[in-house]
Amino acid sequence: MGFRVQPEGLDTYASLLKGLQDDLKTAQDYLNQHLSYDYGDARMFATIANANNATKAAVGDNLKHLDQLLSASAGELVKSANMYRETDANEERRLDETYPSS
């Protein structure tokens, strides 16, 4: 049993990762809509507002980082799929050249 890569599978996985980036946009929108408190909203719970704002900033930073990772990963998967296609085509061509022409 040999090693075999299906480039279409890599393309499919890259598409799934790109789709997750859309979900990140939804998460960021939710974060901005539902976790935005200022000190006027918090009033006597200013400590809670501080903790909320710090948590919101940390989650927002993580979402941005995850978006970068997904984008880079999807791009590399597409590059890998193309490299496997090119390698397979070159090897097929090289093998065909070893046969006598008819």
In terms of topology, how is this protein built?
Layout: H1 7-34, H2 39-42, H3 46-98
Helix pairs in contact: 1-3
Which term fits the overall shape? rod-shaped
Gyration radius, to the nearest Å? 24 Å
Summing up helix and strand content along with how strands pair, one would put the structural category as mainly alpha
Largest sheet: none
As for the number of domains, it is: 1
Q: What ranges have pLDDT less than 50 throughout 5 or more consecutive residues?
A: none
Percent strand equals: under 5%
Which sequence of SSEs, written as H and E, runs from N to C? HHH
Distance between the termini: 32 Å
**Percent helix:** over 70%
E-strand count: 0
* pLDDT averaged residue by residue: 91
Number of helices: 3
Protein name: Excreted virulence factor EspC, type VII ESX diderm
Region (Disordered): 83-102
Organism: Saccharopolyspora flava
Biased composition (Basic and acidic residues): 85-102
Structure in words:
By secondary structure, this protein is mainly α. The chain has one domain. Helices cover 83% and strands 0% of the residues. It has three helices and no strands. The chain is rod-shaped, with a radius of gyration of 24 Å. This is Excreted virulence factor EspC, type VII ESX diderm. It comes from Saccharopolyspora flava.
